[in-house]
Amino acid sequence: MILRKRFSKNLSEAACKYASSIDFDKRLYSYDIAGSIAHTRMMAKQGIIPPEDAEKIISGLTSIRKEIEQGKFSFKEELEDIHINIESRLTEMIGDTAGKLHTARSRNDQIALDMRLFTREAIINTVQNITKCQQAIITLAEKNRDVVIPGYTHLQRAQPVLLAHHLLAYYEMLKRDKERFQDCLKRTSILPLGSGALAGVPYPVDREYVAHELNFTDITNNSIDAVSDRDFVIEYEAAASLTMLHLSRLAEEFIIWSSTEFNFIEIDDAFTTSSSIMPQKKNPDIAELMRGKTGRVYGHLLGLLTTMKGLPLSYDRDLQEDKEGLFDTVDTLLSTLEVASGMIATTIVNKDGIQNTISKGYLLATDVADYLVNKGLPFRKAHGIVSKIVNYAIEQKLTLEQIPLNDYQKFCPLFQNDIYAVTPEYSLNARNIIGGTAPEQVARALAKAKKETINAERKQ
Predict the structure, then answer these.
(1) Rounded to two decimals, what is the model's pTM?
(2) pLDDT means over runs of 10, the chain (460 residues)
């Protein structure tokens, strides 16, 4: 091991394995090298190291990056982490000059930088993938913009709504998710390098220069906070947890809707599996995995919150535990968004199957009550009358449309022939307010959503 000069013996083999992070933090190599190159350029500019040494260091780091990308780099567990692995290889290549790379910095602010660079890129990729998922939702909604489905509360049929209106609810959820990630980006894109181990560095560093080189929008104001802050990781994982929650809810609905009992949709074969013993089965396994993987993302968030809650300032080795959870969260979320987009885009809506449910469940009961309200009756009284009418219809095995007018009038004399104009289409059109399920409002919502995603793509 390196960095053991103060001690009379090396770490035990078990302790070395326990402390090593190279198995997972080698994923940070490109960020580590990018940060080191920017740091080296700054030191040469500031006269901290000679320009010729900077050229040798940058050339060596560039070669190491190529070695890693080509699979020729040998990562060594005994060198602990990505920083020392790279610096050790750089020493092999250019000699003692490599030791000048670590001037004016510590592994504490170095890893803080790497994690910010990684998280920043993850946020950008996440926002792009959310936009793609939103586009898939918009496309499915547009293809089926005239399809009426039962809206549900308590998983009981409630009122008729447009399928497009229902789907756009998920668009809105993902819109909020995207805004959360974009807001997280503001607090992630802040340069910690120059904070040293915890107190800053005794060299004339130009932090603004490094921030510009690495496209950071700001620099940290407190060196102690800079090396110990992992709020940006927690924020990413919190935003990811909410996004997974929303995708899980969508997956649950697709699972339910694709069942024989509902028969609203058919999920494409590319996103389903068969049974090993039951040949008739078409299982929504991908949707189920979307639902199942949500828990692991929650777990990573809770794990890091628990790790951070008792740490004194400034840096503690516990912070090594921030990486695996973040990496897995990013991988899980991005892959879930990818398969969700594909599943949504290829799903077929079974219009006939949906139509069979519209006449069941007394979906227009609220509209019948509103009919009486428009005739001058207080809503609560109208609600009570219609409750009795529904009970009567159930006993007689009639739909609301099948109840004769004279029977309606036994419950309330305000009923007239125009009660039969209360249809699903009437119900939809009556809700012509911003945010409502009326076709006019849904058309506007679709147009707005399309414009938002087009603008988002241009910005990306």
Answers:
(1) 0.94
(2) 61 84 94 98 98 98 98 93 96 97 97 98 98 98 96 95 98 98 98 97 98 98 98 98 98 97 95 88 95 98 97 95 97 98 97 88 95 97 97 95 96 97 96 97 97 86
Torsion of CA 358, 359, 363, 364, to 10 degrees: 120
β-strand 156-162 against 190-191: which pairing, if any? Answer: unpaired
State the Cα–Cα distance between residues 386 and 365, nearest whole angstrom. 7
Assess contact for 149 and 354: CB atoms under 8 A: yes
Closest by Cα among 219, 163, 222, 221 to 190 = 219
Residues 127 and 122: their CA atoms lie apart, in Å, by 9
Residues 442, 165: contact at Cβ < 8 Å?
yes
> Is there a domain that residue 8 lies in?
no
> Tokens standing for 382?
């109208």
Let me know if residue 58 belongs to a domain.
Answer: yes
| Residues 309 and 328 reside in one and the same domain | yes
Residue 36: inside a domain:
yes
Residues 6+ apart with CB under 8 A from 458: none
Residues 180 and 312 in one domain: yes
Domain that holds residue 273: 108-357
Q: How far is CA 104 from the centre of its chain?
A: 37
Question: E-strand spans in 248-299?
Answer: 265-266
169, part of any domain: yes
Please report the DSSP string for 143-160 in residue order: HTTT-EEEEEETTEEEEE
What SS3 state is found at 265?
Answer: strand
Last residue of a domain, one of 103, 137, 169: 103
Asked whether residue 270 falls in the same domain as residue 202, the answer is yes
Q: Which residues are catalytic?
A: 154, 275
**The token pair that represents 200 in the structure block:** 């800053």
Extended strands (E) in 320-378: 348-349
